[in-house]
Amino acid sequence: MVVGDEILSGRTQDTNTSFIAKWLNERGVRLCEVRVVPDIQTEIVAALNALRGRYDYVFTTGGIGPTHDDITADAVAAAFGVPIDYHPQALEILNAHYAPGEFTEARKRMARIPQGAELIENPVSKAPGFHIGNVFVLAGVPMIMQAMLESLSHHIAGGQKMLSACIGGAVAEGHVAEALGILQGQYPDVSMGSYPYFRPPPRGEEGVLPVYGVNFVLRSIDPERLSAAAEAVRSMIRAHGATPEDRD
Amino acid sequence: MVVGDEILSGRTQDTNTSFIAKWLNERGVRLCEVRVVPDIQTEIVAALNALRGRYDYVFTTGGIGPTHDDITADAVAAAFGVPIDYHPQALEILNAHYAPGEFTEARKRMARIPQGAELIENPVSKAPGFHIGNVFVLAGVPMIMQAMLESLSHHIAGGQKMLSACIGGAVAEGHVAEALGILQGQYPDVSMGSYPYFRPPPRGEEGVLPVYGVNFVLRSIDPERLSAAAEAVRSMIRAHGATPEDRD
Predict the structure, then answer these.
(1) ipTM entry
(2) Which of A198, A240, B57, B117 sits at a 20 to 30 Å CA gap from A59?
(3) Given an 8 Å threshold on Cβ–Cβ distance, is B177 in contact with A125?
(4) What is the model's pLDDT at position A150?
(5) Mind listing the pLDDT tens digit for each residue in A71-116?
(6) Do B174 and A106 touch (CB under 8 A)?
(7) Could you tell me if B34 and B102 lie in one domain?
(8) pTM (2 decimals)?
(9) Is the separation of the CB atoms in A74 and A155 below 8 Å?
């Protein structure tokens, strides 16, 4: 759950989602849904309660700073129906971090943590995140969010790692779609996605699409099945007169 | 609503959301929520029904190509409880576009449109999007999505355009938070967001944050109030010993 008017206004490009998705993949956990919600308490509460009831883990980013628009901690407390107050350890961390006289009332806001939550260390700017139940509350600034996430590995009970392969080829989706559908039927344990790419036409040739191709993304927890499916996709691309290329 | 396993896996960075958000802002429409859902029909149906019941407009991206993983049109039909079949005009457009023998069965899939929907023109690769009720179904490839969106201006009853200003300054959030909260109280009709930025420390100085500052983003439909609030924020930054900078 991404909390932030700045994402919904289009001003800030969210990059936390893809970072968290990849980090979870490494641990054998799949990201199943993302919601971006505004800085409005009732919206955060409703989305969080829907998500935490449904999924094993929920990660939130944004809204835990010292200003009036940082309302995530209060919203999480409201969602869990618990009080929120200054957390002694959070106060201690922040008090030690700031120079004398610098631990302002506004900064003290960042030590307000829902009852029953455990702190998540913030090695970058010290103000902690927290986790409560199956919800992990992280900062919105990517560098800080990433540092917080790194400390969470031991909290995540992962499954088998999802492996993937990407094979591209200068084919048209409409030509290979039938063959790909048959392959998907033969490999039900390997999910096959098909992503066409286009390049904008050169000046003066607007409306023409001279370069195109398709990236086929295969995903499976079984390395042998993935490898066999990848070879089948390469054959399919060759059978359509193109050269398969393994891509990242 | 972003439909796509490729976004949830972290492989593809979604950029459609911020494009649509800005396009809507220009028309005086605010993006209120985003959901990213997997290529699973029941998930798409549930999310779409929740969103279309709640908001004036819903835009979907992704899942309208010719391959087996393109299931958005079927899911939209299911969400609206209407049948889906080949749309005569869509068949005509695609038939005219492809060379003889090239209009494959797979490509015909792209002419399957829920009953009662109107087509959205695709000047890039011809396969149309569609709109039904308050839902606009667009392609996932950004270049195609953007071209489709441009044709929709006359369908959107916009409000007053949301104006914004961004003023940055080398201040700490914890220092200005109190003053900013007071300003927000004085300008309830101007939403004030506070977004700290950090730069990674140079090598050898890890753990130190030498450069930081805050961008203050102000948003209002009233240009005079926005301008007055921006001047108040500039004064606030100056009062904290820094030089305000107007930013994009």
Answers:
(1) 0.92
(2) B57
(3) no
(4) 93
(5) 999 999 999 999 999 999 999 999 999 999 899 999 999 999 999 9
(6) yes
(7) yes
(8) 0.92
(9) no
Shared domain check, B186 and B133: no
Chain A positions in Cβ-Cβ contact with residue B20 (cut-off 8 Å) = 10
Where does chain B have alpha helices with state H? 5-8, 16-26, 41-54, 72-80, 88-97, 105-108, 142-150, 173-186, 223-239
* B99-119 residue pLDDT tens: 998 999 999 999 999 999 999
CATH assignment of the domain containing B11:
3.40.980.10
User: Is B106 in Cβ contact with A177 (below 8 Å)?
Assistant: yes
C-beta atoms of A34 and B35 within 8 A = yes
Q: What CATH number is attached to the domain comprising B200?
A: 3.30.70.360
Interface test with B, best of A19, A33, A44, A68 (most B CBs within 10 A): A68
Select from A9, A18, A175 the Cβ nearest to the Cβ of B219. A9
Same domain, A150 and A181: no
Q: Which among A2, A3, A5, A9 is the top mutation candidate for probing chain B, defined by the most B β-carbons within 10 Å of its own β-carbon?
A: A9
Pair (A109, A189) in one structural domain: no
Q: In this complex, which of B14, B104, B109 lies closest to A175 when CB atoms are compared?
A: B104
Hey, what are B179's tokens?
Answer: 């003053």
Confidence of residue A222 (pLDDT cuts 50, 70, 90): very high
> Which domain-ending residue is among B155, B172, B207?
B155
- For a pLDDT cut of 70, what percent of chain B falls above it? 95
Containing structural domain, residue B209: 163-247
Residue A170 and residue A147 in one domain: no
Confidence band, pLDDT 50/70/90 cuts, at residue B60: very high
Q: Is B96 exposed, middle or buried (0-12, 13-18, 19+ CB in 10 A)?
A: exposed
The domain boundary residue, chosen from A124, A155, A186: A155
Q: Say if residue A175 is in the same domain as residue A79.
A: no
- Residue B248 confidence (pLDDT): 83
